[in-house]
Amino acid sequence: MRYAAPSLVKGFTMKSLWGRRLATIAMFVNAVPIEAQYSVQPNIFPPGTFFVDGIPVGCGGVTFVLDPNLNDVGQAAPGIIRLNPNVLGALPTTLKLFWVSHECGHHVVGFSENAADCWAIRLGRDQGWFPPKAFDEMIAMFRNNPGDFSHAPGPVRVQNMINCYRAP
Predict the structure, then answer these.
(1) How, if at all, do strands 80-83 and 63-66 pair?
(2) Rounded CA separation 112/89 (Å)
């Protein structure tokens, strides 16, 4: 499936949402699938060299690390986004882009999981890679997720994302 080449967020400000300068993200088309980019050892991708299913993805000056030993789908740390390719590899492209954007969102909005979800889902909406129908995949993914100390239970989390998606 080809996506329209979105001209992602190039340093604009969303004062009404978070009042912070957004990270530059670039998602275009045509490269190597994420499954072909990793091995058993973590692989490091400097800014401008990371792809999700042929779509170049960036998050400002953040380095991407594919780490099959990561105990989660992803993790944001200063200057780094770590992603588990084993988890991402099993997902459809739309959800892969959501998770990458969610982790990038932490670099923009901070530690709040809800705010990172909201930022990612609005980015996908605005760029056209997350159509309303993609919520069917999101609902299926989160259906039995109980949540934890920093994440709402799956159904609540999805409803929060739907609310963000519908907001201007």
Answers:
(1) parallel
(2) 25
